[in-house]
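Design request, tokens follow.
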């Protein structure tokens, strides 16, 4: 699995998890959803993704985006 797919899978999982927590526990979890969405948006324009940097250091292979 390439870094791009891992980043997208992690972002999707984080968004779904935070939405579930907002529904079940507290609406404050929606801030985490907004944080993940903001990081996805800024990485689309800048190419900077903290998770991608960590995965590169861990030895994962890259695709075209990162």
């Amino acid at each position: 699995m390439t870094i791009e797919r891992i980043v997208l899978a992690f972002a999707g999982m984080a968004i779904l998890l935070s939405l579930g927590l907002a529904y079940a526990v507290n609406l404050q979890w929606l801030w985490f959803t907004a944080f993940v969405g903001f990081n996805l948006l800024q990485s689309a324009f800048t190419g900077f993704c903290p998770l991608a940097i960590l995965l590169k250091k861990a030895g994962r292979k890259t695709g075209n985006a990162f």
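Comment from the thread starter after seeing the answer: thanks! The chain has a mean pLDDT of 93.
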